[in-house]
Write a structure and sequence with these properties.
The protein is mainly alpha-helical and 111 residues long. The chain has helices at residues 6-14, 18-33, 42-54, 60-72, 81-91, 98-110; strands at residues 2-3, 38-40, 76-78. A 3-stranded parallel β-sheet has the order 1-2-3. α1 (6-14) packs across α2 and α4 packs antiparallel against α5. The longest helix has 16 residues, at 18-33. It is globular.
């Protein structure tokens, strides 16, 4: 399993620099070709959401689609996926940000 860092995930999703995107894609493809999956922990996911929103100007709808796409990807494993799913569901109609929704979902699960 390949645990990827925020920079690799952002480069892969945004594709704003051909060289950096190709490096990220090559790294991910190599792991998948070896039968491994890609792991995204919650810190990387939150940092990625922040970067995409703050630096790249993605809208809430675009972010919802992007994170949902990661959840749906067969070879991608997100840390505590059920928390991420719940956070996305709540965030659709919430005024809170994604991080707050994920913290709430995680706290509910942990009691």
């Amino acid at each position: 399993m390949l645990g990827i860092v925020t920079n690799v995930l952002v480069r892969f999703l945004i594709r704003d620099g051909k060289e950096q995107f190709n490096k990220a894609r090559k790294l991910i493809k190599r792991e998948l070709a070896n039968g491994k999956s890609v792991f995204i922990n919650q810190l990387v996911l939150l940092e990625t959401e922040w970067v995409l929103r703050s630096l790249y100007g993605l809208t809430k709808i675009q972010l919802l689609q992007t994170i949902s796409g990661l959840l749906d990807a067969i070879d991608v494993q997100l840390e505590d996926e059920s928390d991420v799913e719940e956070a996305l569901f709540i965030w659709r109609d919430a005024k809170a940000d994604f991080a707050d929704c994920l913290i709430g979902a995680r706290n509910r699960r942990l009691g």
